[in-house]
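Researcher: Here's a chain I'd like modeled. Treat it as a single chain, no partners, no ligands.
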Amino acid sequence: MKLTVRILTNGTGDYTAVCPSLPGCSSRGGTRQEAKERLEEAIRGYLASVSNFVPENVGEHLVEA
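Model: Modeled as a single isolated chain. Structure tokens:
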């Protein structure tokens, strides 16, 4: 399973990370890395809520686009 992640900057210098294939799954951070780490946590929660299954190494399945 590969999930595409997009990390964007906003006008205030913060970053927003989104996973387009998981509607509503997004996060923010002061750095790209922080936004990506928070998104990984959000993805874990999303997957747990819809399928009761979370891959142990979900971070290895994220691909930045």
